Structures are given as C-alpha cells and as structure tokens.
Amino acid sequence: MTNKPVQSLTVKKVSEQKCFDGWHRQYSHWSETLNCEMRFAVYLPPHVDDGEDVPVLYWLSGLTCTDENFMQKAGAMRLASDLGMAIVAPDTSPRGEGVPDDPEGQYDLGLGAGFYVNATQEPWSQHYRMYDYVVEELPALVEKHFPVCEKRSISGHSMGGHGAIMIALRNPESFCSVSAFSPICHPTDCPWGHKAFGAYLGDDQSAWKAYDSVELLKRSNVSNPLPILVDQGDADGFLAEQLKPESLLQASAEKGYPLSLRMQSGYDHSYFFIASFIEDHLHFHAEHLRG
Amino acid sequence: MTNKPVQSLTVKKVSEQKCFDGWHRQYSHWSETLNCEMRFAVYLPPHVDDGEDVPVLYWLSGLTCTDENFMQKAGAMRLASDLGMAIVAPDTSPRGEGVPDDPEGQYDLGLGAGFYVNATQEPWSQHYRMYDYVVEELPALVEKHFPVCEKRSISGHSMGGHGAIMIALRNPESFCSVSAFSPICHPTDCPWGHKAFGAYLGDDQSAWKAYDSVELLKRSNVSNPLPILVDQGDADGFLAEQLKPESLLQASAEKGYPLSLRMQSGYDHSYFFIASFIEDHLHFHAEHLRG
Q1: Average pLDDT of every residue of chain A
Q2: Interface pTM (ipTM) of the complex?
Q3: Where is the active site (chains A, B) (predicted)?
Q4: Which residues of A216-255 are buried (b: 16+ CB within 10 A; e: fewer)?
Q5: Domain count, chain B
Q6: Which regions in chain A score pLDDT beneath 70?
Q7: B269 belongs to the catalytic site
Q8: Threshold 0.90, pTM exceeds
Q9: CATH number of A231's domain
Q10: Do B233 and A271 touch (CB under 8 A)?
Q11: What pLDDT was estimated at residue A7?
Q12: Structural domain span for residue B190
C-alpha cells in the first residue's frame, strides 16, 4: 500500500521549462479523491510574474493520454502566453501500484481511460473518481498554489471532450465557457461508452445518464446557457461509430440550447487537427473569461 | 538481408493528416545511400493545392529523435502554412534489421545518433552515411515527388543543429539560409562528438574536421556568407560541456563571418524552447528563400 502523506493539498514540482516567456511545469501530489499519487501539468503565462491573477483553461485529454500530450503537441502556449491564460492538464486516470487496469489490456478501459466519472463498481470504485478529481480536488489545488483567479473554462479532446462538456453542463456556475475537439458526445450510445460506463457504473443504464452530454443537454437550463464550441473533423475514423456529434446537435436544436458545432473538412482525430484550431478555442474562451 | 526494391527514388506514403489547411505526411523508401528502409516526414502548405512550387526547409533533429519529434512538438506548421513553406524532417540515423547500434546501448551512438556524417569505420560504414543522405538522396527524392522549387534552407536542433550548420557550410550553394537551436557547435571538442566521431570516423582526428562547424567556419569563404541564425537557451544543461556556442562565435568573429547568436534567458534544451522561437526561424528563412 502506498504511504499516504500527512498533508493534503500539497504539490511537488517535478519538471519545469520556460516556454513563450511563461512556464510549463509538471507537479505530482497525493490525491485524496483518487487514492493515489497523481501528476498534472500547468502552463503559467508571463503575466503571473507581474503579480496578475490569471484565468484558467482546464484541458481534459483523450484515451491513452497523460498530462503531456496536450502540452507538447497542441501548440497552445504561444497564444495562451499572449492572452494571459493559464492552462491546467490533468492525467486521464488514476495511476500507480494498486490501481486496477483493464483485465483484457485494452486501451479504452482502466489506465488512461478514466472517462471522468466516479466509478461505483468494483474493482474500480476505490480509485476511479476522475469526476470529483477534476471538479473539486484539482481546482482546489490549483487555486491554492498558483496565481489564478476564479474564472475557469474547460476544454478537451475525444474522451476529454466528453468530459469537458459533461462537467460543464453539470457545473455551469463553475465555468465561463466550454469547448471540445472530436468529443464522445453520447457515451450511452457508443461502444467506448458502453464498455467504460458498464464497467465503472454497472449494468443499470439509468445511472449512465448523469455522465452523458446529450442527456444532460436535454435536462439543462436554457435560460442562461453556457457558451459551447465544438470542432469535429469529417475525416475522423471514429466519427460515425463513437463520436456522434449529430446527437448533440439534435439535442441542442430540440432544446433550443445554443451550440456551435463546426465540421472541419479533411481533418482527422489527431493532434494535428487540434493544433490547427486550438487558437480559435483559446480566443473563444478568452472572450468569455473576460466577459 | 532486406530485399532491395528494384526501383530507386520511389516513396510510399505511410500516414497523412491535414494540418493548418496543408498536409503532414510520412513516407518510407529504400535508401540506396543508407542501405536500409527509411522514413521521413513532410509538411506541405496549402499553396501546393494551387499548383505552386514551394521552397523547402529541411529540419534535422537531435539525439534519440525520429522524423516525428519536430512535426509533433515544434508548432511550426501554423506559420509554415501561412508562409507557403514545405518542411522535410528525416530520421536521425539508419534503422532496421542489420543496422548496428551502440554496443553499450547508450543514446549518443548508433540508432538515433547518426551525427550526419559518412562513417568510414566498421561496423558503421555500410549504413551510417547520413551526410550523403541529407545532402543528396533526400533532396533528390523530395524534388522528384513533391511540388517544391529549388530554394532550400536548413535548420536543426542539438545534433541536428550541428548537422544543419555543418552541411550548410559545406554546401553553401545549396541553401539560402541556415539556423539552429542549441547546436553542438564544436563536436571535435566535446564528449558527444569525441564518442561519435571516434566510432564513425576513426582515431585520426584530422578526419573529424570536415564535419565540425567551427573548423568549417574557419575555412569558409566570407565574401558571400550564408545567413546563420542560432538560438541557445542559457538554462540548457548541455551548454557548457557539449554545445559550446562561444567557440562558433569566436571563429565567426576571427574570420569576420556574420553570425547571429541569440542567448535566450531561462530556456533549456527542450522542444518548449524550440516552440518558443521557431517562428522567428521560419520568418528568417522565408526572408532569405524569397531573396
């Protein structure tokens, strides 16, 4: 069993690189929520050196990723530096000794595939509580240790796009805006979602709806809607079977919930796609974080 | 023994992603020079769709890298797309069955560490001919298969920074400009260079000088100098022992060869550093490619 540190909400810096006059850093910490040691990455723009408290964009990555993929591949820091925006990228699942993984060794369950839910089923429930981690523990850590203000937005890719929209719709008071690249829009109606939600949440599919963006949109309050921007490549190999953006579009149309979904011709599911449009997303969030 | 294809100068596309309205692609091909199958990456800006022949920036990566590191991490494609510049990134060594590696398994010799020289010593000389590959075979392939003009520039990082400056100084008629991040400036006078050059070129250090940027600069023609831009982070852990930019600066001063060396405060040896300044390099090359 891992030794649990006495103090909670402490962080330890594990790497640091200057980037666009700001700083990319990785931190590790004991997560009370996930019951394991976790690592996350933060980009701090140069504005913090002048004593400014900056807004934060939380980025949730997709299947198989860690805190590193977005920070290394998205090309987001150039504009985040200019805009004075911090970016926080957590890992995509609990990790380490004693944390269970998919017994079949597939990439779409277990390590790297937390799906941003609170698991209720064994053997997952002791560690796989990524929803609470992203909604509560991580922002508390970030706001304790870094010069950030309370303005937050959230974005993500694929599984993390699902996580971002789902978390934002469940916590609209916590975020100024939400965006996603290639999100798994309707996990209760796709193979990835069925496998993960079945394992983490059990066979009762009514329990799945609390983590499904389409279901949440149907039940959302449209009087004060959260700005939502979604980019989806039409050459994405996962589009028809796993991602199903049309389900989100239909729910938003029926509900009258504003949603900007952009189909991008020729783009696939990769970080080359994300890099191509990340600056649009940063400008979108900056506008709402300032508002 | 690998079967050698009948046709030479053929390429096979192995991946493709749309990126900033252009295309990132990986190709494999049989290299006559290296006597093995090789992979390289190319970024083609959207201008080629309009039938335009675009100039090419060759990028040489550092130790342990493949064609992927720069394309995924440097954030270069945003501006390359705007400027109408192709980028070609070769691998850093021969690969595959029968290609020898460092018997001690270190990262600084053998696979991923070709040092852009033509090896003369056993067991390296049959495959390790990265100089000829980058100077001759790769440009011939690129100019045969892609809509590029004959305007070329060259850049690289660390071992690839050494490669870029060295190759440009030896072939000034082939390039409009050269730049480097954190180059190994004086490989005949640093541990990485001694190990690699000793293995590939043998004990006679006089043979090493043909691949040393400082030695080449001393013997260069200053009447028509090639524009050179070098960025070096002052928090780079390899700076004092391996990189030695002061040796290049001193040689350029003594010779009267113009050289722009920028020491960047707080930056290290990583791609976070490269990303921070790559656009300066692309603008620098674009200016000279247009000239």
Answers
A1: 96
A2: 0.94
A3: 158, 236, 269
A4: bbeebeeeebbbbbbbbbeebebbeebbbbebbbbbbeeb
A5: 1
A6: 1-8
A7: yes
A8: yes
A9: 3.40.50.1820
A10: no
A11: 52
A12: 12-290
